[in-house]
Design brief:
Elements (H helix, E strand, L loop, with lengths): L4 H4 L2 H6 L6 H16 L5 E5 L5 H5 L5 E6 L2 H7 L7 E4 L12 E7 L8 H11 E12 L6 H4 L17 H10 L2 E8 L13 H18 L11 E8 L1
Parallel strand pairs: 1-2, 1-4, 2-3, 4-5
Antiparallel strand pairs: 5-7, 6-7
Helix pairs in contact: 6-8
């Protein structure tokens, strides 16, 4: 499947929705909060896999923003959302930027789609300036509740997830690309239902409350195994 209009209307995108206060909205808000907290105001920020432009568009008031996506359809669609961001059609594995170009690089749920994610991480290390920040998120194969879901786990539901790795491998590659790990945490248990027969809304409240609190407040506290995604904040040395 190509990352086109069909993709954005199916799989995870369809499930989380683009509506205000949806899971997608809260995820973007949380990542924008992290970028502002760890990045330098006025610095250059790159979102790799900018999709529909909703995250990079939020950050235009704080950074000089750039976005790339492998799909030309998504880049064009993003122009309905962004105002000042410079958008490009490009691959994460061959970034069209010079060394040390960016103070912040965000790559949120993209590496698992790439045939050579290690090369992409090396490229991120190349284009991030000394002291700059990487924010990376990807499905968490070490999630404590993943065994409860089995083959129905969210990370397995998208056929374009061709590079699922354990957190230790991602962290090794990030460090090899010249980064120092600052925070490694998770996003909570939101892939309900986990238990048969118990209503989904009750499970969402019970299992999802900690992740929801973290997303709303920006207070990072969830251990790396306590969620369906691993989130990494790292500093370029």
């Amino acid at each position: 499947m190509s990352f086109d209009e069909e993709y954005f209307s199916t799989h995870t995108y369809a499930e989380i929705s683009f509506a205000k206060y949806s899971m997608y909205w809260w995820s973007n808000r949380f990542n924008a909060m992290l970028a502002r907290r760890y990045g330098r105001r006025g610095g250059r920020l790159l979102e790799i896999g900018s999709g529909m432009g909703h995250l990079v568009g939020q950050l235009e008031d704080t950074f000089e923003t750039y976005g790339i996506d492998v799909n030309h359809w998504a880049v064009n669609k993003s122009k309905e959302v962004v105002q000042k961001s410079r958008l490009h059609t490009a691959s994460a594995q061959e970034l069209p930027f010079s060394d040390g170009s960016f103070n912040v690089v965000i790559i949120k749920h993209i590496v698992e789609h790439l045939p050579d994610p290690q090369k992409a991480i090396r490229e991120i290390g190349r284009v991030t300036e000394s002291g700059g920040t990487l924010i990376l998120a990807t499905p968490n194969l070490d999630s404590l509740l993943k065994p409860w879901k089995g083959d129905r786990w969210i990370g397995y539901q998208d056929p374009t997830h061709i590079s699922l790795k354990r957190p230790a491998e991602w962290l090794k590659w990030i460090e090899e690309a010249g980064f120092r790990l600052i925070k490694v945490f998770s996003d909570g248990f939101w892939d309900v239902p986990y238990i048969p027969l118990v209503p989904k809304q009750i499970q969402k409240l019970f299992f999802g409350s900690l992740g929801g609190f973290q997303a709303i407040t920006g207070f990072i506290f969830l251990p790396r195994r306590w969620g369906e995604s691993i989130i990494v904040i790292a500093r370029k040395q």
